[in-house]
Amino acid sequence: MKEVYPGIFLIKEKGTLGAIKPPENIYVLAGSDGIIYDAGYGTKRAVKHLVSEIKKIQSNYEEQNRDFTINRIIVSHCHPDHFSGLKRIRKTLGIKITLTKKSAEIIKTKKSFNKSFETDAYEDYMRMRKNYARKIINGLKNIGSRIFYRRIFGVSYIEDPDDIIDSNTEISINGEIWKIFPSPGHAIDHISLYNEDKGILFSGDNILRTITTWLGPPNCSVEEYIKSIKTIQNLPNLKLILAAHGSPIENPKDRIAEILSHRKEREKQVLNIIYNNRENGISPKNIIKSIYPNNSRFLLQVARGWIVLTLKMLEEKKLIKRQETKKCILFFPTVTS
Ligand SMILES: [Zn+2]
């Protein structure tokens, strides 16, 4: 545990399995009306570690005769590495769970959660999946994710959140006003938490110090993501970003500029590949292969997400067009000179 700003503590949860279960940051905003931001994993071990770290902060505060009461927990978005611990943390610490309407809908039940990850028509289309294949894949995904999330992440669902808030609102934490605003793109229900006086933003998964935020179907959108990053770029007085993974970002302006230019370069890269194949067209699969020629099958599954979404965006912007045959989709540039 580390005090990353006076009164704000970062508790790191250990990750395992590399990118599949990454180390996760949980923040405690300590004071008389404190809050926990993000719930991390819900395994017994993860929550035990969190609680023991919180107890340390508490005894530190009490030694200094300072108030320490945590009243609630909120989450940045409903990906399993962020919400799984909610139920167990509530039970152990006796605090309230505050969720936005959108997040509450997603993690209400196992069924609603699985539904939020069903493949969408665009994804099926890109893979030339037929309707029956789609049903089978969604079914298999459900069984797989149920076992995986339950065992490895300790997921539990929240049918009865204590408070439901709007995703565009203000909340009081330790007597100070913090702004909550929607920042979709990486996840449809993603929110950010900002205090203008301090210039501190809790960015969740949207802005990470060294890693590129994962984007992929069905719930992500490159366009929405860029829009959210630009909203953050325009926040007055932004000085420090506290992210859900990795260390604090002390040069937010530079990091944001880097992220935006990275996305622009990626868009250009896809457009160039399509342009270079303007004679015969190129399939989504071959676009992915030419960007990641050496990746393993598994890594390709993770990496292909942003490419599919970028194709979707380029089609919507009418910068590329498609030609469909029974067996494949080919993309062509709309401007060929
Ligand atoms: Zn996430």
Would you spell out the secondary-structure blueprint of this structure?
Layout: E1 2-5, E2 8-13, E3 24-29, E4 34-37, H1 44-63, E5 70-74, H2 80-83, H3 86-93, E6 96-100, H4 101-106, H5 110-115, H6 121-126, H7 131-153, E7 163-165, E8 169-173, E9 176-182, E10 191-195, E11 200-204, H8 222-233, E12 240-243, H9 252-276, H10 284-291, H11 297-316, E13 320-324, E14 329-333
Parallel strand pairs: 4-5, 5-6, 6-7, 11-12
Antiparallel strand pairs: 1-2, 2-3, 3-4, 8-9, 9-10, 10-11, 13-14
Helix pairs in contact: 8-9, 9-11
Zinc ion binds at residues 77, 79, 186-187, 205.
Explain the overall architecture.
It contains 11 helices and 14 strands. The protein starts with a strand and ends with a strand. 41% of the residues lie in helices and 20% in strands. Helix 8 (222-233) runs antiparallel to helix 9 and helix 9 crosses helix 11. A hairpin with an 8-residue loop joins strand 9 and strand 10. With 337 residues, it is α/β, with parallel strands linked by helices. The strands form 3 sheets. Strands 1-2-3-4-5-6-7 form a 7-stranded mixed beta sheet. It folds into 2 domains: 2-106 and 154-250, Ribonuclease Z/Hydroxyacylglutathione hydrolase-like (Metallo-beta-lactamase, Chain A, 4-Layer Sandwich), CATH 3.60.15; 264-333, Winged helix-like DNA-binding domain superfamily/Winged helix DNA-binding domain (Arc Repressor Mutant, subunit A), CATH 1.10.10.10. It has helices at 44-63, 80-83, 86-93, 101-106, 110-115, 121-126, 131-153, 222-233, 252-276, 284-291, 297-316; strands at 2-5, 8-13, 24-29, 34-37, 70-74, 96-100, 163-165, 169-173, 176-182, 191-195, 200-204, 240-243, 320-324, 329-333. Zinc ion binds at residues 77, 79, 186-187, 205.
